[in-house]
Amino acid sequence: MFTGIVSEVGKVSSIKKINGGSELWINCSFANDAHIDESISVNGVCLTVVDFNKESFKVQCVEETLRKTSLGELKSDSPVNLERSLTLEKGIEGHIVQGHVDTVGKIIKIDQNGADLLVTVEFPEEFKDYVVGRGSVAVDGISLTVAQNESNVFKVAIIPYTWDNTNLISKKEGDLVNLEFDIFGKYIIQYLKNIER
Description:
Blueprint: E1 8-18, E2 21-27, E3 39-42, E4 45-52, E5 56-61, H1 63-68, E6 79-84, E7 103-113, E8 116-122, E9 136-139, E10 142-150, E11 153-158, H2 160-164, E12 176-181, H3 183-196
Antiparallel strand pairs: 1-2, 1-6, 2-5, 3-4, 3-6, 4-5, 7-8, 7-12, 8-11, 9-10, 9-12, 10-11
């Protein structure tokens, strides 16, 4: 479980294909403190540490993960948002994020709006009921608030600090992002669907 508060931006140091999936080594400042079986959110995807050294940790992605997320787009030197799993001593400063990506969205516009940057994301229409104005959404693992939404498009306002301290600073229009919608909203919608049956 995570909070959507990115602790740092790591960098992919190498990628190796394995049985339809891939193996990633990721450089970061806390690698030496990692441990085997630790869960780490990488661009919003919960992955398990299988090896580590002083500079990097290694994770493996199965074929389904690559198909359902944007991790298959990563290259050597790609910046990735990292968050270590929530502990009982850590405050929930964003919102509850599972690291289970619902779908991949596409950045279709980046606009400056005063001090904020407005990022417009398009996503598959089948998920439109999960997005509500002022609700939470995780974009590449970043806890953000929906500023505007219409059909299968939403906008999020990014403050300069978040822009500068996540991988958003390297994003451009047309890039893919992992989306995880609010877990409580998903439970409510599922409950209502079951009542209607």
